[in-house]
Amino acid sequence: MFNFFIAALVVALAPGPDNLFVLAQSATHGAKAGFCVICGLCTGIVIQVCLLILGVSALIAASPVAFFVLQCCGAAYLVYLAYKSFQVRAGVVKLDADNADEDNAAGEGAGLSFRKLYPRGIIMNLTNPKAVLFALSFIPPAVDLKRDMAPTLQMAVLGVEFIVATFIVFGSIALLAGAVKKFLLNSPKANRNLNWFSGCVFIALAIALFLF
Question: Considering only CA atoms, which of 17, 28, 18 is closest in space to residue 171?
Answer without folding.
Answer: 18
